[in-house]
Structures are given as structure tokens and as C-alpha cells.
Design brief:
heterodimer; A: 314 residues; Rossmann fold; CBS domain Like; 6-stranded mixed beta sheet; globular; B: 252 residues; mainly alpha; MetI-like fold; flat; membrane (chain B); transmembrane helix (chain B); MetI-like_sf (chain B); transmembrane (chain B)
């Protein structure tokens, strides 16, 4: 659990972070989002004391971070950044084992842990262990960066635009993998990004920042449905908000049970988002879709009226 | 010896072939200079002696190496130390000052340093070591600074963010990454100083500069050539040793 209580950071005359309070529960993925210079990275770096806060208190599991030695505090938290920061003169294996080695784990345990992480992140040991960072693609390097952040099995993970430099397809894959990892590992994650789609896709709690202040925080759907002001609304996509909300809702939430009526030919998976369903309808010129499960068996149907959430009959 | 082991040995020997070759030539020239008497007669027809004989060449070579080695060692300790110190948070204010001092050290001619040092330190090897140290400092300081400043800031940020202490960061990350550039600076510094050390002979530090100075004073071109030949071979030997060390350091 991470708690920021009235935290302020001043650099000389300028106030980068202005009196923010924030609570990230255990197992929660909290995304800080905002335009550049809004203080989101500064906030993240105050949590592991790469930047010291000027005022207020920051607690980790109820203990003030200033009570820890800087290094031991950081070794308790994973840290992944956009440029990966992999050590170019170390192999992938050695890079991943960095924090366990700093914590003086026995060699055998480090090796075992590195192997486990590489398997978890889809980096076959035989192929990648001996490679140097310059031999990796952007996506592979970022996977190694995430593996290194997870190496000592920290409860807390701090991620500063980790996928920002990747191409859209790799980025989406890694976002999915992170969600997947998170559902299994239940870490407390603070994730910084300026990409709203990424933020909406990942966040359990979305924190919108502007000029060093928190404008609004809550579940992504809450923010989409009731943005606090024009700034939050425009950051969330303005006119596109409907589509962004639809992307967060799954077909199974709006589908109707199977009826004696003839099933439509066009189908959509029950795990798909409403946005994908809408796209199929637009593309196929269909107002009704059959909803199918993983075995492609029909489990219900979805109409356009139902999809858009129309209140009248049905 | 197994085949694989002998293979490694052969490859090792081949890697060191150039330094061995220059080193061999250097030693050969030191030991067998008198066999070249006929050759030197051609340049110096009217002198009675054409082979420098006031001291034997091997001793001069040893003293030459000692002076350059001690100066280089001190320059590395001071140069790398200063460059590391001014790239730490606490010493950052002194960075421009140190960079400037090192530049001044090189613009100051070693001969002038000798002239100023002799009254203070007396004749002998000490003033020439000081002169070489000052002269050789700049390439080492400059390259160490360049090497440290050339490290991707993300690497440093990650290292700190992962919980490395500043000592661990320096030893495990910064110095290894900067090593090839630092080594190039040391190479430049040492190679220049091998030639510069010859002027030490003017203040009583006997080394391979002796035959040159003595040749100039006595108008004996053969002596000058012998000193120059040996200094040239020494510079080539040492330089080729550094050339061998360098690629090994970059993969470290």
C-alpha cells in the first residue's frame, strides 16, 4: 500500500507537485496520466526517493519512506523506465539478476529466479540469457526491463512510461501481458503515461494530473462518465469518450439471453469489448450479432439498441 | 597439451604478435646496437666513436620506462580521480575548473616546467616526472570526463532506481562503461610522454634522451639517431600493447 499525504515538491521557485494526496491499495494498478510537465513523473520518483519531496508525507505499508535507507527502500520496489536503462555491458541474465545480487541472494537462487522470470515474460532462456541489450528489439528490451523490475519479487512496482518508445502493436501486446501478469501477481503498481488509451486499458485507478495537482481520480469508467471539468473531459478524449467507454465494457455485460428467434450470422466473442462489437456491426452493416463463447458456441445475442444502452423497451 | 588448448595458445600469441614484434625489435636494437656500427659510420664519417657508449642502452631503456611509468601511474590516479570526483553530485561545481586546469597543464611546455621545477626539486628524475605528469594529465582527464558523461542517463537512473549505492554505480557501471574511452586517453598520454621524457636528459635524468642530448651537444648525428630509434621503437611497442588491450576492455 502506498499513501501520499499532502505531498508537495518545489524546485527552487517552481512548484512541480502541489499538495497531492493519493492512496494506492495493495494489488491496485494506479495510472498517473496528464500532459508533459504535469508532475506525474516527479510524483513517481518521489515514491522511491530519486526525488525528495519537499512537504507532506509518503508512506509505504504504513511506514514513512524517510525512515528507510534510500537503497533498501529502492530494492523493495521494482522500477521500469521508458529507456529501459539496461546495462549495455551486462548480459540479459545478469541485468535481470541485478537486484537479487544487490540483496546478496545465493547464486543458485538468483539463477532460478531469472529463469522463472524469463519464462514468464516469453524470453526463452537458451536464446536470450547470454545476449547483450544492443542485440534486443525494443519490445524484448522492455520485457527484460520489466523482468528486472520484478526480479526480487517486490510488492511495489513503479513504471515510468515503460512502453512509450514502442511501436503500437508491441505496446498493446506488452500492455496485455502486464494486465495478465498483474492478475496473477497482484502487485501494487504506480504507472505513469501520457497515452490515455494505455491509461484506460490498464488502470484500476486513474489519476488525472495537471500543473502539479490531481484533477480527478477514480475508476476509469467513473471518470469517463462524470469528468470533473473540461480539462479532464478533453484529456479523456472529448467526443471520443463514448468509444473509449465502450472499449472498457465487455459484450457479456449487455448481451441478451438466447431467444427462439433465428440467430444472426455475424458473431462476436463474449469477451470482446462493446467497441469491437460496434465495429463489427458498422463493418458488416448488421444490427444484431450472435455472441459466442470460446468454443464458438452461441450463448446469447447483442442488438445495436442494447449495445448503445437505449432505455426504451427490450 | 590438448588440441583446443594449443589452439587458444596460438590465437593468444597471434593477438600479441604486433607488440611482441616491436618489443623484440626494441630489445634487439638495445643489445645489438654495436653491430650497426657500419651503418652509423655512413652518417657520421669523421667521429671517432659512432655508438653511444657512456651507458648501456638497456639501462637507459629501463630508466626511461621507469620515469614514464611512474608519471603515467600518478597521472592516471590523479586524472581519473579528479574526473570522477567532479562528476559526483558533491563535486559538480569544480568540473569547469578541473577541465581548465588540465588544459593549462598541456599548454604549458614541459621544458618550461623543467626550468621551473629544477630550482625547487633539484636535478634528477623528480622534475621530469612532474613535467610528464602535468603534460599527460589532460588526455586522461578529458577522456575520463567524456567517457563518464557519455553514459546513457537512463542507465544511471535505472541503476539508482534499482538501489545501487553510488560506489556500486561507479565500480560496476560507470567505470566499466567508460573504460574504453579512459584507456584511449591513457594511451595517448603515455605515448606522448615516451617521446617527451627524452628532455629529462637535460636535467640529469639519464634515459633514452641521453644519446640525443649528448649527440646534439657533441655534434654527433649517430648518437641522436640511436636515441631517436630506440624511443620510436619503445613508443610503438607500448602503443601496440594498448591497441591490444582496448577491444578487450570494450566488451568487458
Amino acid at each position: 500500500m502506498i499513501e501520499l499525504i499532502h505531498v508537495t515538491k518545489r524546485f527552487g521557485e517552481t512548484t512541480a507537485v502541489d499538495d497531492i494526496s493519493l492512496r494506492v491499495e495493495r494489488g491496485e494498478l494506479c495510472v498517473l496520466v496528464g500532459t508533459s510537465g504535469c508532475g506525474k513523473s516527479t510524483t513517481l520518483r518521489m515514491i522511491n526517493r530519486l526525488i525528495e519531496h519537499s512537504d507532506g508525507e509518503i508512506h509505504i505499508d504504513g511506514q514513512q519512506i524517510r525512515e528507510f535507507r534510500e537503497e533498501s527502500l529502492r530494492r523493495r520496489m521494482g522500477y521500469a523506465i521508458q529507456s529501459t536503462g539496461l546495462f549495455p555491458h551486462w548480459t540479459v541474465e545478469r541485468n535481470i539478476g541485478l537486484v537479487p545480487r544487490l540483496l546478496k541472494w545465493p547464486q543458485a537462487r538468483i539463477r532460478e529466479r531469472v529463469e522463472e522470470l524469463m519464462a514468464m515474460l516469453g524470453l526463452p532462456m537458451g536464446e536470450f540469457a547470454g545476449k547483450y541489450p544492443r542485440q534486443l528489439s525494443g519490445g524484448q528490451a522492455q520485457r527484460v526491463g520489466v523482468a528486472r523490475a520484478l526480479a526480487a519479487d517486490p510488492d511495489i512496482l513503479l513504471m515510468d512510461e515503460p512502453f512509450g518508445a514502442l511501436d503500437p502493436i508491441t505496446r498493446e501486446t506488452l500492455q496485455e501481458e502486464l494486465r495478465d501478469l498483474q492478475s496473477r501477481l497482484q502487485k501494487t503498481i504506480v504507472f505513469v503515461t501520457h497515452d490515455m488509451d494505455e491509461a484506460l486499458r490498464l488502470a484500476d485507478r486513474l489519476v488525472v494530473m495537471d500543473q502539479g495537482r490531481i484533477k480527478q481520480q477514480g475508476h476509469p469508467l467513473e471518470l469517463l462518465r462524470e469528468p470533473a471539468d473540461d480539462f479532464v473531459e478533453s484529456l479523456l478524449g472529448g467526443e471520443d469518450r463514448g468509444l473509449k467507454e465502450a472499449a472498457l465494457l465487455s459484450v457479456s455485460e449487455r448481451m441478451l439471453p438466447l431467444s427462439p428467434r433465428l440467430l444472426p450470422r455475424e458473431r462476436v466473442s463474449q469477451h470482446a469489448s462493446l467497441r469491437e462489437a460496434l465495429s463489427i456491426m458498422l463493418w458488416r452493416h448488421a444490427e444484431r450479432l450472435a455472441v459466442v463463447d470460446d468454443e464458438d458456441m452461441p450463448v446469447g445475442e447483442l442488438s445495436l439498441r442494447k449495445l448503445v444502452g437505449a432505455k426504451a423497451h427490450d | 597439451m590438448t588440441e583446443a588448448a594449443s589452439d587458444v595458445a596460438v590465437r593468444g600469441a597471434r593477438r600479441w604478435l604486433t607488440p611482441l614484434l616491436w618489443g623484440g625489435l626494441l630489445l634487439g636494437a638495445c643489445l645489438g646496437m654495436q653491430h650497426l656500427e657500419g651503418l652509423f659510420r655512413l652518417v657520421e664519417t669523421d667521429s671517432r666513436s659512432v655508438i653511444y657508449a657512456r651507458a648501456d642502452f638497456l639501462t637507459l631503456l629501463g630508466r626511461h620506462l621507469l620515469v614514464v611509468g611512474v608519471a603515467a601511474l600518478a597521472a592516471v590516479v590523479i586524472g581519473v580521480g579528479a574526473a570522477v570526483a567532479v562528476t559526483r553530485r558533491a563535486g559538480r561545481d569544480f568540473l569547469p575548473l578541473v577541465a581548465q586546469l588540465a588544459s593549462i597543464g598541456q599548454t604549458f611546455p614541459p621544458v618550461a616546467v623543467l626550468a621551473l621545477a629544477v630550482p625547487v626539486l633539484g636535478f634528477g628524475t623528480l622534475p621530469i616526472i612532474v613535467a610528464l605528469l602535468l603534460y599527460g594529465l589532460l588526455p586522461i582527464v578529458r577522456n575520463t570526463l567524456a567517457g563518464l558523461q557519455g553514459i546513457d542517463p537512463g542507465v544511471r537512473e535505472a541503476a539508482r532506481g534499482m538501489g545501487m549505492t553510488s560506489g556500486q554505480l561507479l565500480r560496476q557501471v560507470e567505470l566499466p562503461l567508460a573504460a574504453p574511452v579512459i584507456l584511449a586517453g591513457i594511451r595517448t598520454s603515455v605515448t606522448i610522454n615516451i617521446a617527451t621524457a627524452a628532455i629529462g636528459a637535460t636535467v640529469g635524468a639519464s634515459n633514452l634522451g641521453d644519446p640525443i642530448i649528448s649527440g646534439i651537444v657533441n655534434g654527433n648525428t649517430a648518437y641522436v639517431l640511436q636515441g631517436a630509434l630506440l624511443i620510436g621503437l619503445l613508443a610503438l611497442t607500448v602503443d601496440s600493447v594498448f591497441a591490444r588491450l582496448q577491444p578487450a576492455a570494450s566488451t568487458g
